Amino acid sequence: MPKRFRLTRRFPVAMTEDAHRRLRRFAQEAGLDEGEALSFLFEHFDSVTDHEALTHRLRLFNAGLDARKR
Question: Minimal CA–CA distance to 40: which of 22, 61, 23, 17?
Fold first, then answer.
C-alpha cells in the first residue's frame, strides 16, 4: 500500500536567501511544490547526499554560523 502524502507538520524555518532560491529551483525542476521537495529530500536524505562531502560542508557551515546570525 503506498504511503499517504499528508502534510501533518508545519514548522518555522530560518533559511538563507541562497538556500531558498535553490529549494525553489529544485522544486520547480522536479515538478513539486517547496514542501513536497523538502519532504522528498529528507525522506531520501542518505541516498541524495555524499557522506564525506556533507561532513565537510557541515563543518564549513558551522564555522560561519555565528556570523550569519548577526
Answer: 23
Distance CA(41)–CA(49), nearest Å, equals 9
Task: Name residue 5's amino acid.
Answer: F
The three grid cell numbers given for residue 21, joined into one nine-digit string: 532560491
Provide the pLDDT confidence category of residue 5 given band limits of 50, 70 and 90.
low
Q: Which three cell numbers stand for residue 48?
A: 541524495
pTM of the model: 0.75
Whether the CB-CB separation of 26 and 37 falls below 8 Å is answered with yes
Contact 30, 40 (CB under 8 A): yes
Say how many Å lie between the first and final Cα of the chain, rounded: 47
